Amino acid sequence: MECTIKWVDGMSFMAETGSGHLVTMDGAPEGGGRDLAPRPMELMLAGAGGCTAYDVVLILKRGRQDVTGCQVKLEAERAETDPKVFTRIRFLYTVIGRNLKPEAVERAIHLSAEKYCSASIMLGKTAEIIHEWKIIEAA
Length: 139
Hints:
By secondary structure, the protein is α+β, with helices and mostly antiparallel strands. The protein folds into 2 domains: 1-38, N-terminal domain of TfIIb; 40-137, K homology (KH) domain (GMP Synthetase, Chain A, domain 3, 2-Layer Sandwich). The chain has helices at residues 40-62, 102-116, 118-123; strands spanning 3-9, 12-17, 22-25, 66-78, 86-98, 128-137. Strands 1-2-3 form a 3-stranded antiparallel β-sheet, with no helix packed on it. A 3-stranded mixed β-sheet has the order 4-5-6, covered by helices on one side. The protein starts with a strand and ends with a strand. This is Putative redox protein. It comes from Azoarcus indigens. Pfam families: OsmC (PF02566).
């Protein structure tokens, strides 16, 4: 896996991923940025959310669960001083589907958290990770 970061201007940067996709990052105005794109740490948090959501949906589908939606909201706290690593991250899953088994949802989240989601497992080296979930019955 590779990624190339190019400084654009001010405090804006463009990342080109190994798969050829582009992501823009920018800083806050007080840091010289123009606030035109997400901060790098926001993207790190988004990556962890995307990684675990992918896992949960895949595990539920493979388990023949009728999952129709999945949302993960992440709430993170950071250290007060540099390096301002994440110290606590709360993952709030909302899983939507028809007749979803609570034990299947719990298992999918557990497998993602403990075995498959490299991003959240890596962040767990510095942060307390909390997983909460709810199921919404699809219409």
